[in-house]
Amino acid sequence: MFFGRFHIVIFREKRGTPRKLQLKGWMLMALGLILTLLVAGNIVLLKNFALSGSLEKSLSLTEKSAHEQKSQLLNLSQKLISLQKDVTRIRDFDSKLRVMINLEQENIMSVAPRGGPGQDVAKGYLPLYRQELLARKMNEFLRQLSVEARMEEVRQQEIIQRLRANRDVLEATPSVWPVGGWVTSTFGWRVSPFTGKREFHKGLDIAGPSGTPIYAPSRGVVAFIERDPAYGLVVNLSHGSGLVTTYSHLSRVGVKVGQVVQRGELVAYIGDTGRSTGPHLHYEVRISGIPVNPMRYILN
């Protein structure tokens, strides 16, 4: 039968002459096999198409979920970076309080010493392969933060006890800004605006409009008022225990020698007297005659 012959007769409508096709047995079987393979192939293709649609939908959902997780990680990382800055600011505040009340400084551990959650977060860029690493670093940061918070609570309790015992000392410590304005020159080495040479600046220069009120940063006694060729009109407040604050380049004063002033009371007004490049307050803090950085004491 495989090698036999088959005849196919085709009749045309309204025509009397039929048409005959002659096929060998193996050709007919080959055609049947090809048709079967085509049907099977189409079935496989349809199944793969349906599967690819399902996979594409699953991939889309996975990418959406990964994007949401990435956004959450970035937001959490930004909050952790902000929290790290807050902890640093609290630690600096702690150090200033300890300086003010002569409490021994501690060697305080820094939270996230390797830079916090990472530089990629600050740039808003987080590759997928770094998400797991970032999650681990955030967990470590939170663990360190928990330890730091417990340690800070103990330190604050110690400071509170010392403040209660030294309330008079605290009231006489210059812990607030004497005037509103902007700092144009800090404490330390600088290039002199007059000589162009390197010199040590013994205080803070706080610029402001002439006539801006200057207030006492703490309780004190007006030790002297004088005019100096370099510093102009000067007021000196003594706060006890060798602590003295000086206010220079004043336009006029609002106190008298020997007068007791409390924190927040008017002392003088910003001016441009003496050797000055413009209206500003030159503010100094000295301990036993030695100038120290006023920023060590300013808390606000």
Detailed description of the structure:
By secondary structure, the chain is an alpha+beta fold. The protein has three domains: about 5-60; about 75-170; about 180-295, Glucose Permease (Domain IIA) (Distorted Sandwich), CATH 2.70.70. Helices cover about 40% and strands about 25% of the residues. The protein has helices at about 25-100, 120, 130-165, 165-170, and strands at about 5-10, 20-25, 180-185, 190, 200, 205, 215, 220-230, 230-240, 245-255, 260, 265-270, 280-285, 290. The strands form three sheets. Strands 3, 6, 7, 8, 9, 10, 11, 12, 13 and 14 form a ten-stranded antiparallel beta sheet that branches. The longest helix has about 80 residues, at about 25-100. The radius of gyration is 42 Å and the shape is rod-shaped. The relative contact order is 0.09. The model is unreliable at about 110-115 (pLDDT under 50).
In brief:
The protein is an alpha+beta fold. The chain has helices at residues 25-100, 119-122, 128-165, 167-171, and strands spanning 5-10, 19-24, 182-185, 188-191, 198-201, 204-207, 213-215, 220-228, 232-240, 243-253, 260-261, 266-270, 280-287, 290-292.
